[in-house]
Amino acid sequence: MKKNVPQAAHTTDKTIALIDSIAAQVRADIEVGKLPDLKFPVRALDNVTYDKRKGYFELGAAEKERTLTVTTARSFAQTLRLMATSRTMVEHDDFATKREVYYISKNWGDCRFDDQAESDATMDDIEAMASMHGLSREQLRFYPESHGGSVAGRLTVVDRNPLSGATVEIDCANLGSGAYSIPRSVEHLSFRTDAQFVLAIETGGMFQRLNNHRFWETARCIIVEMGGVPTRATRRFIRVLSDTQNLPVYCFVDCDPYGFTNIYRTLKVGSGNAAHVNRFLCVPQAHFLGVTPQDIVDFGLEDATHPLSPRDIKRAQDALENDPFIMAHPEWIAAIKELLAMGVRAEQQALAKWGLDYVISEYLPKKLANTGRFLP
Amino acid sequence: MKKNVPQAAHTTDKTIALIDSIAAQVRADIEVGKLPDLKFPVRALDNVTYDKRKGYFELGAAEKERTLTVTTARSFAQTLRLMATSRTMVEHDDFATKREVYYISKNWGDCRFDDQAESDATMDDIEAMASMHGLSREQLRFYPESHGGSVAGRLTVVDRNPLSGATVEIDCANLGSGAYSIPRSVEHLSFRTDAQFVLAIETGGMFQRLNNHRFWETARCIIVEMGGVPTRATRRFIRVLSDTQNLPVYCFVDCDPYGFTNIYRTLKVGSGNAAHVNRFLCVPQAHFLGVTPQDIVDFGLEDATHPLSPRDIKRAQDALENDPFIMAHPEWIAAIKELLAMGVRAEQQALAKWGLDYVISEYLPKKLANTGRFLP
User: How far apart are the CA of B323 and the nearest CA of chain A, in angstroms?
Assistant: First the structure.
């Protein structure tokens, strides 16, 4: 098989340097007769903080140590082999999904992983440790399995041919009724755009509507399909795009507790149980365009709503009582209380009540004229 | 809002002509004082047949009538309004998802749909009726919500700018590490390719692997990510691509009953409970490349397998006893019995046991050298 052209050298070098330095320390300990140890950040919820200014859930300073002993010999070896696997993948510009990593270990003899939960946990430890050095899981070459969402609009993605290294440019304004499917790692991409914002959309149907009617052309934007809670690749793509091009990110999702506290919240501040990756994946600059509880009134959607389910209500109450992100923002507290008082939820498709083109001709232009009123 | 350029005129004309002729008949009945009726194919399983030569589950001849009476007045009106909606969408080159259709009805006064199950059933009736005239749901402008899968390889998709009508060409060999995301309707697409086959892949991770290593370049093929059971758009895309370009379709999925009887079977012959759409969506020319039970032996994957779960076993036994497709093919009966005897399943990622590049350097080339041995 032909060897791929390496990604940006500085990233590659950083990953290899980190792995080499850890390996060198382990070796040095052994050579002086000391039991080596590895340090990892604690990945539990009580080691997670939310700082409104930083804008995302973050890992705290707590660390756990894995010292080589009789009982830890296997997991110690697994950790080192997994780091070696990562190093080899960087060298060969290759990558592995979590599932593949698990299978790779089948040839490791006694230190093979018994099930994927075991390899995932080890990988998460390495990832958390690397994150403290500014390296993401993708830079370790562990790629997510899941689909990367679709993109269309005023954007040229600058990629490379993985084999020849030649520059490849993808004009996302010129894909007809189709779209650009985000790759599982976006670290090597760069962008050119004259868009004024990124619109992140919950449903595939709404994405297709805005794309088929070239909403992005006149609205001067880039549209991204999240397809429910956005995957890692989608979140990282939006983040890098927004950071490098200095573009605001507006979210267009359903008006229900799931849309607020799962889809939007995950995009903006990340999730509590993967805090070590939030610094790479979350999009603190995101704002909530709609659909808001107030939109139900302002756009006459009352008869296109559905009653909140007991699960919706529980999710909303949980957010008010326990979610540090919601609790830090009075606007969100008010919006969720308003929704609970109304007792209904509304989907973004509910706008079709006024005609299929209403969302494009009325709703989005009216909302976009008042970005200052978007929820934080 | 600017009006989109219509799709291929003959399709548009056929849809409008069908709706107009049904409406004219209803009107003629009313004008002579007769109660009008509408005829729909019965969409129940006992009106489904499997013909090995045709290669897909097909609706039988049984019909149900919906005559206008006091009790049917509402559903009769809903059916006519839904057909009128379809006609309007054809005229304006617009479309609606199932969910949007439900919301559109919120402005229909007394004949609004109470829930989406009701509008879905009515839409399925219209779709089944149209299918008897060779028209698909997409031609009625009812689009699926779900994502359309990713494509890369030796293929140029010829689309159009929905607003200007200008031709747009997407070179799927030139999208870097990204891919082409299939739109929700593919009826207006045409293709240019020098590929020799289409490879339909179950998992996103394997798709990304084959894409990043440009497998399609040397293997001279087009790769399509199914992401589990392929969506309608993905199935239709593969079907139209294969039909028009005369390309064989090979499937690369997990070796388990779900992979055989859900993912592969759905792609190839469709599903029993949506028989009226199978003629447009299924890919009878598909063949099963692997992973086969015999591959577990031939490629030494025994220690990278997992025991069959009780659910796997039940699914396999059901297929042997009840699935007309499996029962029509002795090769599949033998394969499933072999799997049951082995008592294990193997994922396509299990090949990573021999190294990440094994699937590209060994497995796929060996399999593709013997396409005649693929399962039917």
Answer: 30
Q: Write the DSSP assignment of B114-174 as a string of letters.
A: SSHHHHHHHHHHHHHHHHTTT--TGGGTEE--S---EEEESEEEEEE-TTT--EEEEETTS
Full-model pTM: 0.89
Partner residue opposite A205 with nearest CB, options B99, B157, B177? B99
User: In the prediction, which pLDDT does B9 show?
Assistant: 53
Selected residues 158-197 of chain B with any CB under 8 Å from a CB in chain A:
159-163, 168, 170, 174-185, 188-189
Contacts with B, A 299-328, CB within 8 Å: 303-304
Shortest CA distance from B152: residue in chain A: A181
- ipTM for the complex? 0.87
DSSP bridge pairs for B41: B63
| Tokens of residue A13, six digits | 């070098």
d(CA B194, CA B156): 9
A146, A168, A352: residue with CB nearest B176: A168
CA-closest candidate to residue B357, choices B246, B228, B252, B213:
B213
Segments in chain A below pLDDT 50: 1-7
**Active site (annotated) includes residue A103:** yes
Q: How many CB atoms lie within 10 A of CB A27?
A: 10
Q: Alpha-carbon distance A112 to A124, whole Å?
A: 17
Q: Which of B50, B56, B102, B103 is catalytic?
A: B103
Dist. CA B219–CA B247, nearest whole Å: 14
Strand partners, A158: A169, A190
For residues A334, A200, A273, A11, the Cα torsion angle rounded to the nearest 10 degrees is -140
DSSP conformation class of A83: H
